[in-house]
Amino acid sequence: MELITPFHFHSMRSLTALYNCHFREVEAGWSYQLHEHSGYELLHCAYGQMGEWIHGESVVLHPGDWLFIGPGVKHSTINESSQPFAYFSVHFGIDDAELTNALKELHFAHLSCREERLQHMFAELLDQMRANSAIETEGLSGLVTIDRLPPVVRQTFMLTVQQLVINAVGLVLAEDRDTQHAQQQPGRKKLNAAEVKLAHGIQQKLLEAVYTSATINEIAQQYFISRSHCNEVFKKVYGIAPKHYLSIMKQRAAEELLLHSGASAGEIAEKLGFTSLSSFSRQFRRWTTISPLQFRSDRDRHRHHDRLYKKGLPLST
Question: What is the mean pLDDT of residues 277-295?
């Protein structure tokens, strides 16, 4: 009998938090405006051809290709072909300082269709979807809302998505280390422990500031540093200015409150530290091009992002 090696681990915590995950087909000529996220995004082209513009660079995804996009990276989607395409997208956060530090240099990483491990996992995901599509389908559109599936089915599905994300991150790190195919942000300097600690502290203050009117100057003063030094250290570690990071987090909080709470727009404005409803509405239009009330009215259409879809399989709400 072959020797069995004993092993043990004390505990395990999830490294990823998934949100806004969906799979859909879109029409020829479909595009999505320049935008960015506070977390990471994993994109997959199931069929057809999709083009991503990332910091002025063109990345064309063919069937089976994957694209990892880092936080704060501006990108847009353009379908220049005359044919529709189908894509899968999942946004996620990583709750691990060592891992985020390893990924901080990346704008994006293009993983080709040769990554069979991801292909098999995605096929398994679609198989699970097909097996349960009759359980919870919205009308004639064929739209399946995963959150309404039975708990065991839903959790199995979400764990498969999480496994897909974790494996993709592992491939991105391996490719960056071994072949350096992933693009790097220019001009980054080596970090020291004090800078990383300071940047992490500033990040926590920024997260607290989402629900206050606190400014970058006030946060810098708490650490007895100038605003310029605060900007420099935070951008050096996270690749994004603290003011921009705070704006993204406030936008996410505003969208979540509009979609998932009964609070009025005025109450949300006050909760997020805005001086008035009008100032909140102006800022929300800068973020999304539509008013808070328009955004809220679109929630039954699976968020304002999804107005142009033909058909799809959203994986979470």
Answer: 91
